[in-house]
Amino acid sequence: MLRAGSCRWIRLTSEGTSELPELVRHSEEYAAACSQAGEPVEFVPLAGGNHFTILEGLADPNGAQMSAVAKAMRR
Prior knowledge:
The protein is 35% helix and 16% strand. By secondary structure, the protein is α+β, with helices and mostly antiparallel strands. Strands 1-2 form a two-stranded parallel ribbon. The longest helix is centred in the middle third of the chain and has 16 residues, at 21-36. The two termini are 24 Å apart.
């Protein structure tokens, strides 16, 4: 697992809003730790997603995840 404070590149973190509460907490705390460490991070919640369906969003060029990737690449 990557550690907060170890990277200068933007980190994109996604989680599904229908995920188990503990997994949502992990994602949110990881994004917060990256931000507190001074790392650029974008947290992308996916409505109705879970850890099985979240990857499907990467196939949608107009989806939230790919939009975040495109935005990061423009920086």
